[in-house]
Write a structure and sequence with these properties.
The complex is a heterodimer of chains A (266) and B (290). By secondary structure, chain A is mainly α. Chain A contains 11 helices and 2 strands. Chain A has a two-stranded antiparallel ribbon with strand order 1-2. In chain A, strand 1 and strand 2 form a beta hairpin. The longest helix of chain A has 30 residues. With 290 residues, chain B is α/β, with parallel strands linked by helices. Chain B has 12 helices and 10 strands. In chain B, the strands form 2 sheets. Chain B has a 6-stranded mixed β-sheet, sandwiched between helices. In chain B, strands 2-1-4-5 form a 4-stranded antiparallel β-sheet. Classes of the chains: A mainly alpha (266), B alpha/beta (290).
């Protein structure tokens, strides 16, 4: 059950997408997200969908694996869609008591659903094809201009990569703790909201203790290896663009151009 | 009558398999075609190298995970049937995991031990009584009752964890690596505790370990696992006879068995299936006196 959460996880395989420079993937994802919010026509969505499908195909990550990660956010998606569906004023299509569905509501809700789904799939594709280490390096490099205005870029990217790295560890830990408590008759699945919340205590206490212990160990290990922040730190594998990366940039530029053109034309 | 009573309490695995991450490139078969029967009064050691599937096996035993194939029967009833009472099963098959840190959460030791029986829906008096008895059974001193479980030593934490499961009144006690991370003294104390539970309380014990030494003295049956399969399921002496096969699986036999095997290789007329120091002493004495 908990193992199904693939959000922010890396999927190990060999593919052209995996081999791209992390900076390219970050910028591509960023461009994709912006484009999703620029697009307002179905033609634009189709272009974005083709682009996304191409990227997924090239990445060799099984589609079922990507959608498995979606399960965790389905609730959020449903709530957003339902709110938009029922609360948008406009031309009435159907009503029952206080519930009203309008033509505008249907349009906005469906667009919202498409947008959010593609956004989540697009950004999880980035984390699925990039190791946390690469991601940190890429992020640090992309954000480095912000150092001029005293943004702690290195620290932010380090924190992010540690957080990502710890997701699977804490997931596994949660799974083990749940099993240990279920073996003692704990019930995490039934009862009302309050009962369920109080049933979480036997899970959360050991989990927090373990998270703090791990954080402490990690800090020790980093200090033992003389980690002192980003100042003057060099890399074993500096990021270098290759021809593949320039091609990828070209594809991104082309995509952005098509999206903007679609916005003008349709 | 006695046969049916004996038959009554048994846990039977019929052709069980388990696959992790099924349908992805990380798919791993943890268990394949496992057939195993655990009956009342046994002391079973399950041995295997890291990744042999032994931890997966124990979580199957009380229905925490469901097998990908095959069935598990408790008293002849399929535990994965919809109508099967899993809560009952979890109180009958007590499972103690490797790290006590994964289950201790209450402010003091006593309340923590009460957690299990409380979940069974027993009366407050009964819960307390069971908790006291369990704490006594694991030989934990009364002075620890009101202490925070997090302030205890590794061995004591493990006792509290075992007490927490014992308080549920299990018929089978399954322990996953109960000696990992303990010093020799702590390890012996836990092993002695298990054999006293087995002998005095009549609890069936299933001890999972990667160390032969842990199980050699106490178990009356040893199940050896390798790569998701059961390789041997025999009495300890017979299992330790397969010295070379065990070595190939990354397992070792007790030190004393090695010594006796070396002696036998050198041409001394000693038996190869010696597993404890006492037996070795007797064997060598017999040789010398002859």
């Amino acid at each position: 059950m908990l193992r199904d959460i693939t959000l922010g996880q890396y999927y190990q395989t060999k593919s052209p997408i995996h081999e791209l420079d992390p900076r390219v993937k970050l910028i591509a994802t960023f461009a994709f997200i912006i484009s999703l919010f620029l697009v307002n026509s179905y033609v634009g969505y189709v272009i974005a969908l083709i682009y996304l499908a191409l990227a997924i195909g090239l990445s060799r990550v099984p589609f079922s694996y990507i959608t498995r990660g979606m399960k965790a956010v389905v609730m959020l998606l449903m709530i957003t869609v339902l709110f938009n569906l029922f609360l948008t004023p406009g031309e009435l299509l159907w009503s029952f008591g206080v519930l009203r569905i309008t033509r505008e509501g249907v349009v906005i809700a469906s667009k919202m659903a498409i947008r959010l789904t593609m956004l989540i799939i697009g950004s999880s594709l980035m984390t699925l094809t990039t190791t946390p280490n690469q991601l940190t390096d890429g992020l640090e490099s992309v954000l480095s201009p912000l150092k001029v205005i005293k943004v702690p870029v290195h620290e932010i990217s380090m924190m992010m990569s540690i957080a990502l790295r710890f997701i699977p560890i804490l997931m596994e830990e949660t799974d083990k703790i749940m099993k240990a408590q279920m073996a003692r008759g704990a019930d995490f699945e039934s009862g009302n909201v309050f009962k369920r919340a109080s049933n979480m205590v036997p899970l959360l206490v050991p989990l927090f203790i373990s998270a703090f212990r791990r954080a402490n160990d990690l800090a020790m290990a980093m200090e033992a290896r003389c980690y002192r922040g980003g100042e003057g730190r060099t890399r074993m594998k500096p990021l270098v663009y290759s021809s593949k990366d320039y091609i990828a940039y070209l594809v991104i530029a082309l995509f952005m151009f098509m999206i903007i053109a679609a916005g003008r034309l349709f | 009558m006695s046969i049916s009573a004996e038959k009554k309490m048994s846990l039977k695995l019929d052709n069980v398999s388990y696959i992790y991450e099924s349908g992805t490139n990380m798919e791993r078969k943890a268990l394949e075609n496992i057939n195993l029967e655990i009956s009342k009064g046994e002391f079973i050691g399950i041995i295997g190298h890291t990744g042999s599937g032994k931890s997966t096996l124990v979580t199957l035993l009380n229905g925490l995970i469901s097998p990908s194939g095959g069935s598990i029967y408790w008293d002849g009833q399929d535990i994965n049937d919809k109508s099967f009472d899993r809560k009952m099963l979890r109180s009958k098959v007590g499972l103690v995991f490797q790290y006590p840190e994964h289950q201790l959460f209450e402010a003091d030791v006593f309340s923590d031990v009460c957690f299990g029986p409380k979940n069974l829906g027993l009366s407050a008096d009964e819960v307390k009584e069971r908790a006291y008895r369990a704490i006594k059974d694991v030989h934990l001193d009364d002075k620890y009752l009101k202490q925070s479980p997090f302030e205890l030593s590794g061995g004591q934490k493990r006792r509290v964890a075992i007490a927490g499961v014992l308080a549920m009144g299990p018929e089978i006690l399954v322990l996953d690596e109960p000696c990992a991370g303990l010093d020799p003294k702590g390890r012996n104390e836990i092993l002695d505790l298990l054999s006293s539970l087995h002998e005095n309380e009549g609890i069936t014990v299933v001890l999972v370990s990667h160390s032969m030494e842990d199980v050699a003295d106490h178990a009356d049956r040893i199940v050896v696992m390798d790569k998701g399969h059961i390789v041997y399921d025999e009495a300890p002496k017979r299992v330790f006879g397969h010295v070379h096969e065990l070595e190939e699986m990354g397992l070792s036999v007790p030190e004393v068995t090695y010594i006796m095997n070396d002696l036998a290789d050198e041409g001394f007329a000693v038996s190869r299936d010696v597993t404890t120091i006492d037996e070795a002493v007797a064997e060598i004495k017999r040789l010398v006196e002859r």
